[in-house]
Design brief:
Shape: globular
Radius of gyration: 15 Å
Bound molecules: coenzyme A
Structural class: alpha+beta
Strand content: 25-35%
Number of strands: 8
Number of domains: 1
Number of helices: 4
Strand order of the largest sheet: 1-2-3-4-5
CATH class: Alpha Beta
CATH topology: Aminopeptidase
């Protein structure tokens, strides 16, 4: 395994074709997509397309969402990572966005918080970023909590794809 980064309980590596079945399992789950626009994936081919899109980001931007692996078991938990967003969102473009998405059977174990806090450190110490952003559906309490615990500040509401979202920012 090509480990890029680690935290106490997690390994981070690039997403690869082998992840298609588990990525599909996660992203076809309605609960996972409840605050993500409610469009769960329908076919494994769509999961393959997601991985190809993320691999393109690795190549073009040198960064993208990474697979999260539980050290103890070697299990795929989902993904977390930094994404260079080029399009305009809430008046910003070409910004680094912090994101995370886990298999429901691993929710509530503190893994998203561990991944997010480690990625904030990576963004600051390795990438030397000055700003990090995230945006989240105003109803997505777990994600809001993870962002708060990772040090990002809620800078208020905006409308994203017809849905109220909070805009989070960390100045580093
Ligand atoms: C968001 C997500 C990654 C959180 O994962 P997680 O493993 O449960 O996160 P953690 O265990 O690290 O922390 C969750 C925190 O939210 C809190 N929380 C969870 N559900 C909550 C709710 N309904 N109301 C209030 N707080 C809640 C937890 O108590 C915990 O806070 P605490 O440690 O202070 O008690 C997970 O729910 C997920 O994958 N959701 C689907 C994808 C998604 O929405 N991604 C984020 C898009 S912005």
């Amino acid at each position: 395994m090509n480990v890029l980064f680690e935290s106490p309980r997690l390994l981070f590596r690039e997403l690869i074709a082998k992840d298609i079945p588990l990525l599909f399992e996660m992203d076809s789950n309605r609960e996972v997509h409840r605050y993500l626009g409610n469009f769960p994936l329908q076919t494994p081919e769509e999961a393959e397309a997601v991985i190809l899109m993320i691999q393109k980001q690795y190549n073009e931007n040198g960064i993208g969402r990474w697979a999260l692996i539980e050290k103890q078991s070697g299990e795929f938990l989902g993904w977390a990572g930094l994404k260079l967003v080029k399009e305009e969102i809430n008046g910003h473009n070409n910004f680094y966005d912090l994101g995370f998405r886990l298999m429901p059977n691993y929710w509530g174990c503190g893994y998203a918080t561990e991944a997010a806090t480690s990625l904030v450190k990576y963004a600051s110490e390795i990438l030397k970023l000055k700003n990090l952003y995230a945006f989240v559906d105003v109803e997505n309490k777990a994600s809001i909590r993870v962002l708060e615990k990772s040090g990002l500040k809620n800078e208020g509401r905006f409308l994203y794809e017809h849905q109220a979202h909070f805009w989070f920012h960390l100045s580093m």
